[in-house]
């Protein structure tokens, strides 16, 4: 079970990194003035948030092979979690970026900085301070959502628990133990969240 918990942590971190890699460009696309750029990003966010994660896992692992696209269970699980979390992270980042006043943008442009320079040097450092709580919630949710990849035979905490139950026939204490492990992982990330918030709020 502890080995499964280790895999759960790895899956959650990999999905968080993948989700950020997807979420940031999607957030920028969602704020674009051109509809041809904005609409695909909006469709992606709506589809990911409007369908169950379990269905997304099934589509990627069981559905895509029918059109010639096949992934191993680990890759399929991480991809599904990344795509799902990317939609939520994009909204967190978009809201944080839009919370920065337009005066910051205009002042930066008046100094000769371009859009991407302003976004990178002026806006994002301030937006991250706003986005940390919601991004941390997404990571904590990812830790719990990794239990769903057990349906495609990925060995994480929940599947490891089921395997132990199959040999010991003691479901109640083992499921309670699994819940406690998930809780401890969540508490650890809550502590990291508070530390990150204190660090980012030092100037405020």
From TrEMBL:
Keyword hit for Ribosomal protein: no
State the membrane topology.
Answer: Multi-pass membrane protein
Gene3D superfamilies membership: MetI-like (1.10.3720.10)
Report the locations given in the UniProt record. Answer: Cell inner membrane; Cell membrane
Tell me if Cell membrane is a UniProt keyword of this record.
yes
The UniProt similarity line reads: Belongs to the binding-protein-dependent transport system permease family. HisMQ subfamily.
- Please give the name of this protein: Putative glutamine transport system permease protein GlnP
């Amino acid at each position: 079970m502890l080995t499964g918990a280790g895999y759960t942590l790895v899956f959650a971190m990999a999905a968080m990194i993948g989700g950020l890699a997807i979420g940031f460009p999607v957030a920028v696309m969602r704020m674009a003035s051109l509809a041809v750029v904005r609409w695909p990003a909006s469709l992606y966010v709506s589809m990911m948030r409007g369908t169950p994660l379990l269905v997304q896992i099934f589509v990627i692992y069981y559905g895509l092979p029918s059109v010639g696209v096949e992934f191993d269970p680990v890759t399929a699980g991480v991809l599904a979690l990344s795509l799902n979390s990317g939609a939520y992270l994009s909204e967190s980042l978009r809201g944080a970026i839009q919370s920065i006043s337009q005066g910051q943008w205009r002042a930066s442009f008046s100094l000769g900085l371009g859009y991407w320079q302003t976004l990178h040097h002026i806006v994002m450092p301030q937006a991250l301070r706003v986005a940390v709580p919601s991004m941390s919630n997404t990571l904590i949710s990812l830790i719990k959502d990794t239990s769903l990849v057990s349906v495609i035979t990925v060995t994480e905490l929940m599947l490891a628990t089921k395997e132990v139950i199959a040999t010991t026939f003691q479901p109640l204490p083992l499921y309670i133990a699994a819940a406690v492990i998930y809780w401890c992982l969540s508490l650890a990330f809550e502590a990291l969240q508070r530390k990150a918030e204190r660090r980012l709020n030092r100037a405020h």
